[in-house]
Amino acid sequence: MNYIEKAIATSVISAAIGGLIGACSAQEPKILINQKMGEHFYNRGLERLEKRDYQGAIADFNEVIRRQSSNYLAYTNRCVARFKIGEIQTAIADCDRAVQLNPKDGDARYKRGNLRIYIGNKQGAIEDLQTAALIYQQEGNMPRYQDAMEKYQKYSKDITQDGNI
Predict the structure, then answer these.
(1) Could you tell me if residue 163 is inside a domain?
(2) Domain contains 94
(3) Spatial separation of the C-alpha atoms in residues 153 and 125, rounded to whole Å
(4) Contact assessment for residue 144 and residue 115, using Cβ atoms and an 8 Å cutoff
(5) Are residues 69 and 28 in the same domain?
């Protein structure tokens, strides 16, 4: 390869590498912006949930999920907002999705357990409450553990007394 051919080859390789670096750099800010905006909507959703603006909270959690489809916390919190406006089945579906995304999310299991109590599914409720209690115990969250265990024991006792087990 002569000098001119080497110079051309070097230029072509440099351009290709530069293009790859540019493409990676162009993607990185988009990802960071998406994460930051997801955090913004998530935090605003929590504020709206606290202020009882359930429709606004749902809209914000929808946006988080649109940007970060694996954000199980957004599903868990959207579940609460949906329950508050009477959308029980979609609230349960949100808890189901949160549990799929993170099986060790005690809050999603606890909330789903309470929703199952609400609709009369005591067997499903006690399974969720027992699992939530175990997760809380492993995390060292004793107040949540005790609360989940109390509900678990109450509904386990109810089922046993009803003769369903």
Answers:
(1) yes
(2) no
(3) 11
(4) no
(5) yes
Any residues with CB less than 8 A from the CB of 133 and at least 6 apart, and which? 145, 148, 149, 152
Distance CA 162, CA 42 (A): 42
Q: What is the pTM of this model?
A: 0.75
Query: What is the number of alpha carbons within 13 Å of residue 67 lying toward its C-beta?
Result: 20
Q: What is the SS3 assignment for 10?
A: helix
pLDDT tens-digit series, residues 109-131: 999 999 999 999 999 999 999 99
Same domain, 73 and 2: yes
Number of helices (H), then strands (E), in the chain = 7, 0
pLDDT, tens only, 148-164: 999 999 988 876 555 44
Cα–Cα distance measured from residue 70 to residue 50, given in angstroms and rounded to the nearest whole number: 23
- How far is the C-alpha of 154 from the C-alpha of 41, rounded, in Å? 37
The reply to whether 122 falls in a domain is yes
CA–CA dist 124, 75 (Å, integer): 19
CA distance 134 to 69: 27
Number of domains in the chain: 2
Measured distance CA(96)–CA(94) in Å, rounded = 5
